[in-house]
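Recall that a protein's primary structure is simply its ordered list of amino acids. Everything else, from secondary elements to tertiary packing, is in principle encoded there. The following example makes that idea concrete.
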Amino acid sequence: MTTSGTRAAHRPSRRQWVIEAATELFATQPPDEVTVADIAARAEMTSAAVYYHFSSKDQVLVEGMRVFAAALREQLETLTEAHRPGSDIGPTVTALVVWLGEHRSAATVFFVSSAGMSQEAEALRQEIRTQLLDELVRLVRKGREPVTDAEAAVIGLGVLALLETAAVSQVRGDDVYRSLGHRSFINEVGRLAERIADPAAADQRP
């Protein structure tokens, strides 16, 4: 997002501008240290204009998480829909991790910065986690047939844990991410996803 250029004056656009400005701040500073005045300055508005759309900075945070979560869920649904039945799920999982990297600020807020900020944020995170799990189970079913309900659920949980761990590692740029480098990191995530989904088949691959 850039802070230059002409912005539309209608309310949805200005509301989104506040969310984007706040997301950039929350991604680089502890959210409890960010003020509405900071958000207003970043969005090139007055604090009163921010309060016109949101009752508090916590509401801005949660709404930003909600917007990102909807986009994340939609991206996973699109990737799952496009997944070729019977094929490895690794490339689909890595495509989602790459997408997360392209939305680094929002991903940082969702997976890292917002942790423990409020009950509403935690409730939203759990709600989205359940929705992502449902979609990952659908992906597992497409990638591995036949599979029982119990197997699909356990595999889905494993892939979700991998996805969350990879997202945090990537946005933080931690030691694992830096030591492997971006390309190798993404490849390793894909291989781990395939191993979780079908260990026997993964062991047989060169």
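The radius of gyration is 19 Å. The mean pLDDT is 91.
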